[in-house]
Amino acid sequence: MPTSNSPQAARLRSIEGRHNVLLKELRKAFAGAELTSDNCCAIEGLRVVEEAIRSGLKFRAVFFSTSAKGKAEKLLPQLGAHVETVVVPDKLFENTVSTESPQGVAALAFCKSFSLADVLTRVEFGPVVAVVALQDPGNLGTILRSAEAFGAAGVLLGEGTVSPYNSKVVRASAGSIFRLALVKVKIKDVLPELRAAGLRLLATSSHKGVPLPEAGLSTPATIFIGGEGAGLGRHLMAEMDEVVAIPHSPKVESLNAGVAASIVLYEAARQRTLTAAEAQTQGEEESVS
């Protein structure tokens, strides 16, 4: 571990005033749950910062509260020499970040930028997820985590959806937000491009629609997930090529949006794997014959 006289520890400097430029940017990014002017997002917690490092993100600055200064010894060797690393008094740190019981570590991290074209280049590997008017940060974080886990091409964030840079979304995504292709869009505007790319448009339903095991999810598709209450609007539902229903007990009115999306993404991955295995078996049989 670096000592107090080592070059690593020497990079730490103290900030005492709340009007420091870096602190003001961190506070504003947390409060607005949006990117800064130089495309940084505010993140908090030792594990979240470590996930950002593991995901290859670069940092503008990393902040430690005075009582959490010991955690700097673990993180400093993993950061580049150009990263500003500062220590902030506990009370000032608490008033800057978004959680009620902060861990004493926060950062401004440069986020990767993606376009719809970036997402469409990957549709042969997995479905696109389109989220519309989803307000619960835990649900969105779960969807992002499942999207990465089950090989989605990317996630489109439609109007009325909670910001992916909300601190609760970031934590619930367990680092997936740092690696997924995320694109904010106007859903109506991108429908023609999705169709032109050969993607089927699929919606989920609680009770009506094609039963999930019977839905064709092995081919390129966009899976639409609506808000917690109203779901997808009537006009958007009219644009769908198919509605997929997840079989469940009639005693349950509907599934949580994050759970529903995760189940559909798992089934899509299962069907793709099965189709690929069948194609490989067929190819081997033809080569033998």
Q: What this model shows, in words?
A:
The protein has 289 residues and is an alpha/beta fold. It folds into two domains: 104 residues, 2-Layer Sandwich (60s Ribosomal Protein L30, Chain: A); 167 residues, SPOUT methyltransferase, trefoil knot domain (Alpha/beta knot), CATH 3.40.1280. It contains eleven helices and twelve strands. The strands form two sheets. Strands 8-7-6-11-9-12-10 form a seven-stranded parallel β-sheet. Helix 7 links the parallel strand 6 and strand 7. Helix 7 packs parallel to helix 8 and helix 7 runs parallel beside helix 11. It is elongated. The N terminus is likely disordered.
Features:
alpha/beta; 2 domains; Alpha/beta knot; elongated; 289 residues; 60s Ribosomal Protein L30, Chain: A; 12 strands; disordered N terminus; seven-stranded parallel beta sheet; 11 helices; five-stranded mixed beta sheet
Written as H for each helix and E for each strand, in order along the chain, the element string is: HEHEHEHEHEHEHEHEHEEEHEH
Q: How is the CATH topology of the largest domain named?
A: Alpha/beta knot
Secondary structural class: alpha/beta
CATH architecture of the largest domain: 3-Layer(aba) Sandwich
Task: Bin the strand percentage.
Answer: 15-25%
Compute the number of strand runs.
Answer: 12
Mean pLDDT: 90
Counting structural domains, the number is 2
Instruction: Give the fraction of residues assigned to helices.
Output: 25-40%
> How far from one another are the termini?
63 Å
Shape: elongated
Q: Record the strand order, biggest sheet.
A: 8-7-6-11-9-12-10
Indicate the radius of gyration in whole angstroms.
22 Å
